[in-house]
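Reminder to self: tokens first, then the designed residues, so the page reads top to bottom the way the pipeline ran.
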């Protein structure tokens, strides 16, 4: 039996040198901003940040007494569930179909990957134009069906718009992982099930989907983080948190209160709360959801 090969460094400093670039990037772009936000959450600054006053937990108390901030929790929860569930479900369906395509396989897969190259702000503007009440091609088609679309006045329409844009932007990422997972499943298992008389749906549900559980779990975590953080540009470009504040998810409210309302302390407190929420959700997912994953 072949022994396991292990790399042994002869010097004690070489591993740290190899890790230094990654550690520097994480420190500069994550730990340092997080520490700054935590410090500012206990302070109150003027609009220009020239003078600061230590206020302790006052910023957090103000958040708990702010109805609009509490409402953004519900908005974010609905938005995140829709984006994660629809994004994973549609991507899995497309991956299953693409895995069965025989002719022009490369063309189909390339077209499904393209949206990932589009910037989030561009994706928001793209769908904004298509759903524009006066000139949008989708809103025009909906009017032909007797449905009046106006995301500028209707909160449900606005939420639908940003969910569609966010899901469309993330589908390519999910699709790549699902397609790779499907192709890694031995074809002999599928063929054996087919010989035993299992229908395509039965083969997928009993064989393919359980073997995709590690990929599904990974994408579930990634999509939740994506919905909380990376959809800011989509919301800003498509609805700017409107109508009213009915599409102001937590990450957008951090930006709005900090850069438009110039409440630097309150914005920092919101960013700390958002960071804690995402960390807690990730821990819960790995603690409980991962138990159902079959590796």
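Designed residues (295 positions):
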């Amino acid at each position: 039996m072949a022994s396991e090969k292990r790399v042994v460094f002869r010097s004690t400093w070489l591993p740290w040198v190899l890790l230094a670039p990654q550690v520097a990037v994480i420190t500069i772009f994550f730990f340092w901003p997080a520490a700054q936000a935590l410090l500012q959450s206990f302070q109150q600054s003027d609009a220009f940040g020239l003078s600061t006053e230590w206020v302790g937990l006052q910023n957090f108390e103000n958040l708990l007494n702010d109805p609009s901030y509490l409402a953004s929790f519900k908005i974010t929860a609905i938005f995140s569930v829709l984006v994660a569930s629809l994004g994973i479900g549609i991507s899995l369906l497309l991956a299953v179909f693409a895995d069965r395509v025989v002719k022009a396989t490369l063309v189909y897969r390339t077209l499904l990957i393209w949206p990932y190259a589009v910037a989030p702000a561009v994706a928001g503007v793209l769908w904004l134009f298509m759903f524009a009440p006066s000139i949008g091609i989708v809103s025009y088609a909906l009017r032909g069906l007797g449905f009046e679309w106006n995301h500028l006045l209707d909160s449900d329409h606005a939420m639908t718009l940003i969910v569609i844009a966010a899901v469309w932007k993330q589908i390519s990422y999910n699709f790549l992982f699902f397609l790779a997972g499907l192709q890694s499943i031995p074809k002999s298992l599928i063929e054996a099930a087919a010989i035993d008389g299992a229908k395509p749906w039965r083969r997928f549900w009993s064989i393919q989907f359980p073997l995709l559980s590690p990929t599904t779990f990974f994408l579930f975590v990634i999509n939740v983080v994506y919905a909380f953080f990376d959809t800011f540009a989509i919301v800003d470009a498509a609805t700017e948190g409107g109508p009213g504040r009915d599409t102001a998810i937590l990450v957008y409210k951090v930006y709005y209160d900090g850069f438009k309302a110039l409440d630097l302390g309150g914005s920092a407190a919101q960013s700390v709360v958002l960071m804690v929420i995402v960390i807690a959700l990730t821990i819960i997912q790995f603690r409980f959801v991962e138990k159902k994953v079959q590796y």
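DSSP finds 13 helices and two strands in the chain.
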